[in-house]
Write the structure tokens for this entry.
Amino acid sequence: MDPKQFGVSTLPYRHEPSGPIADELLVGSNKGKLAVVTGAGRGIGQAIAIALARSSANVAILDLSVESQERTKLACQKFEGVKVEAYKCDITDVQGVRDTFAAINRTFGPVDILVNNAGVAHGKLAFDETFETFWKAIEINFKGTMLCIYEVLQSMRQRKSGCIINMASRAAIVDMPRGISYNSSKAAIVRATASLQEEFELEGLGQHLQTYCLHPGGVWGAMATENTSIEVQQQIRPIFKDVPELCGNTVAYLASGRAKELRGHYFDCRHEIERVCSFGYETLKQYGLYNLGMKFLPGYENEP
Ligand SMILES: NC(=O)c1ccc[n+]([C@@H]2O[C@H](COP(=O)([O-])OP(=O)(O)OC[C@H]3O[C@@H](n4cnc5c(N)ncnc54)[C@H](O)[C@@H]3O)[C@@H](O)[C@H]2O)c1
């Protein structure tokens, strides 16, 4: 992938947590809250769960098996006073998700922070996969995300409090081969995040209820290696420069309510979060920054 095709940044990108999202500044920032993290068994989801536990939130972690979450659970339990529970849950299973959230509610009470992190990328050309594998990825990435959102929506609205953070990807905003299901499901997540925030704003709840979606950076791990040949892995390895904690700490920071100016928007964890916030919610919206958009020829505007 040639960076010149997409533009080369003149501002530095961050590849690991520092500044306002440094570990020590997050401690205690989510005390007393309950966070749910999907796909928490490994990779970025694991880092998110640990960062939230470090920020003193209680954490309910979800993945396809309880055993796969043992390491995450142990790491979260190291933080004093933090309660952690692991749940086996396939986020595409409607009844399974409902039962899991009911169980979480019985153990912890209502959810304050929902992090929809679980996702898959098959890395296949459309000719090389079936409709069923294409659709399965859409179901995990988009249906699973929305299903979990619907499980917390009414309660958050009634309590006038909550934060929903969805894992998108840079794949949502560029056209790339080997991932029609991935790219389109991630784009759907970006649009759903922004539209849901619009509904909160409509009710005057923007300061109380926030949605965000993220590009976590490029994190080398199972997702990049599981379905790719050694040859492709060698080609793509250089663009995976980021540690999972960059996203983990960004999530804890967003959940603490310190970056509400970004609500409804897509945020690339490699950008300087305080700088982006300093432009303000209205400016970001007015100029269509940090959201999906479409450009037309001069003279045509995006008229309703
Ligand atoms: N790794 C990257 O560079 C990168 C870049 C952009 C976006 N992302 C996104 O970040 C998220 C995490 O990526 P990662 O690299 O840590 O991936 P990963 O494959 O290491 O982890 C994903 C986790 O989700 C779980 N999962 C998969 N299907 C599930 C289902 N149906 N129900 C419940 N859990 C399920 C897996 O078991 C796994 O533990 C994904 O949404 C991914 O699309 C990753």
Q: What stands out?
A: The two ends are 36 Å apart (CA to CA). The chain has one domain: 20-286. Residues 131-159 form the longest helix (29 residues).
